[in-house]
């Protein structure tokens, strides 16, 4: 696999969060891992909202062929439209690959993360929390598929996808499950406001509601920082360009 891309560059594009200078820490760490492993001649990171911008990151690369992987959890507007638009006008050969979050092995990483944190998960419910969309709710999302895969393993009491901006709302599901031990995994690609403010506050509120003697609430952090994520990135590159586009 390494020989296929050893003269090419890899460009990882995230959303960015200008309010938080270190919001891209996770993506930068994965880039460093891939840089160290030598699959590509160059590896760079850029953001749709932040610095370096996507086009500045592309300009920093010298390789003629650049593989572009959106570091997003869903195949939505940002991955399909925002990333290509941000790189429009380049004379490079750009190969746009699927976003990391739709890969089926995200669910496998989630199950392993629960196992590492909780040991035997018998009786444990798992809640995958994503952004969702207030503008176009109800779409069939990758997060639903990941939750269904977890539920189908039979290892957990329940597994469900819930969201911050559309139903089912994560706070409502946590309230329904308040008597049960629950592990919560954030399915966000960076550490911006939704993670630091919204998700963090929701978990603090839920933990207070459960009280000292209440059922366990386990914060599993973000799937984006899983050590298996660089392999997901490589698999998305190996899957080929989206819709056969060069």
What are the defining features of this structure?
single chain, Rossmann fold, four-stranded parallel β-sheet, 2 domains
Could you give a short description of this structure?
The chain is α/β, with parallel strands linked by helices. The chain is 38% helix and 18% strand.
| Distance from first to last alpha carbon | 19 Å
Mean pLDDT over all positions: 90
CATH class of the largest domain: Alpha Beta
> Could you tell me the number of beta strands?
8
> Helix amount, in percent?
25-40%
How do the helices and strands follow one another from N- to C-terminus? HEHEHEHEHEHEHEHEH
- Give the low-confidence spans: none
Structural class: alpha/beta
CATH architecture of the largest domain: 3-Layer(aba) Sandwich
CATH topology of the largest domain: Rossmann fold
Can you list the strand order of the major beta sheet?
2-1-3-4
Q: Hey, roughly how much beta strand do the residues contain?
A: 15-25%
Shape: elongated
* Largest beta-sheet details: 4 strands, parallel
Backbone CA Rg:
19 Å
Q: What is the number of domains?
A: 2
Count of DSSP H/I helices: 9
Explain what this protein looks like in three dimensions:
- By secondary structure, the chain is of the alpha/beta class.
- 38% of the residues lie in helices and 18% in strands.
- The strands form two sheets. The protein has a four-stranded parallel sheet with strand order 2-1-3-4, sandwiched between helices. A four-stranded parallel sheet has the order 6-5-7-8, sandwiched between helices.
- The longest helix is centred in the C-terminal third of the chain and has 18 residues.
- The radius of gyration is 19 Å and the shape is elongated.
